[in-house]
């Protein structure tokens, strides 16, 4: 719970999203193997994806903010994905060309999630990990998510005691769905 409070404290302290994202990104390394936290905004009328903010979690080369022109068909696909509320995970070799529009060009893994205001898609939040960091260690990711999500204390303890990381992730997935934080794909 301290982590969630720290994130909210940083987000509320700064009106400028760049400053908030930089500070929030510095809180992530102990929780997730991410090197960067990136906020992308959809400009539907101009068919563009704009980088709103980039926060590096640890040292390394900067990720250059970029704006990307997209076709009307690509924008509609991104809006549909965002409305479904699906999280996506991938690498530069991933076949989903649509979601690759949202992530850095360099090599590494990414997790991308939709950002919505009420029910309207407004963009995407990208967690990016450069090698050797990876998001595919079910045990490690499950433990970190259990720590940072607002799960009741007794349930949190039981989740941390589970020996099967896949079961832990399945329970967390149901928890997020039940609270409307995630929808099934």
What is this entry, summarized?
With about 180 residues, the protein is α+β, with helices and mostly antiparallel strands.
Architecture overview:
- This protein is of the alpha+beta class and 185 residues long.
- Helices cover 39% and strands 23% of the residues.
- A 6-stranded antiparallel β-sheet has the order 3-2-1-6-5-4.
- The radius of gyration is 16 Å and the shape is globular.
Task: Itemize the secondary structure elements and their pairings.
Blueprint: H1 2-13, H2 17-25, E1 36-43, E2 48-56, E3 67-69, H3 72-84, E4 88-90, H4 97-100, E5 109-117, E6 120-129, H5 138-148, H6 153-161, H7 165-178
Antiparallel strand pairs: 1-2, 1-6, 2-3, 4-5, 5-6
Helix pairs in contact: 1-2, 5-7
Describe the global form: globular
**Ends: how far apart?**
28 Å
Cross-sheet strand order for the largest sheet:
3-2-1-6-5-4
Round the mean pLDDT to the nearest integer and report it: 80
How many helical stretches? 7
**Strand content range:** 15-25%
Going by CATH, what is the homologous superfamily of the largest domain? Answer: GAF domain
List keywords for this structure.
185 residues, alpha+beta, Beta-Lactamase
